[in-house]
Amino acid sequence: FAELHAAVAGLPVASSRVLPGLVLRRDFAAYCPAGGELRALLVTEPLRPALSGPGVEFVVESEGQHQASLRWIARRTEAVMKHLQSNNVKLLLSSVKQDEVVICYAKLYGVSVVECLSSEEMAFICEITGVSPYAPFGNNIGGEITETAVATFCQPLLLGSKRCVHIGFTSVCAFQPHCLILCGPVDGVNEQHAAALQGAFTVLQQLFKTVGR
Question: Domain spanning 22-176 has what CATH number?
């Protein structure tokens, strides 16, 4: 229920509504409008490559080495974003904050980015789409990307004064997610309505389980 409802204070209760798909309560880090179905990729690590691995110290002894390192990072990051583009990936959903160089190349290659998703949101998206997060720096960096979800739409959504991301996914099961937008004059009213609705859904869930037996 937590991933399938959003509360908006300062609006009348009558403004509440149900929207198809998911509403992620954060803004795009990069937004590149695209029509039709979109291939979406989930990542749980930075796409900006590290100069050294865990437990390895990287020493820069001159400004020239430092600048060369930055150029290598930029080229490698651009190669990753080109690879996403060549695989028709138009949406990147990340559980971590991506470096500014990633955002710049994402805009250049037409990839929208949503970052800092919670572990619960990532797990829920994985469940309804049937895909797993992508590891960008494995041995198959140039191979085909097969673990992508299909998004039927992806667009900005304004809830009160907060900018959000509204995404519709093609589900791999019978469940088609919809998001409940709860509006109320103050946060306390919204919390009461959310608790009441969650309780009602729990009762219905138990009722259908009983009938199913």
Answer: 3.50.7.10
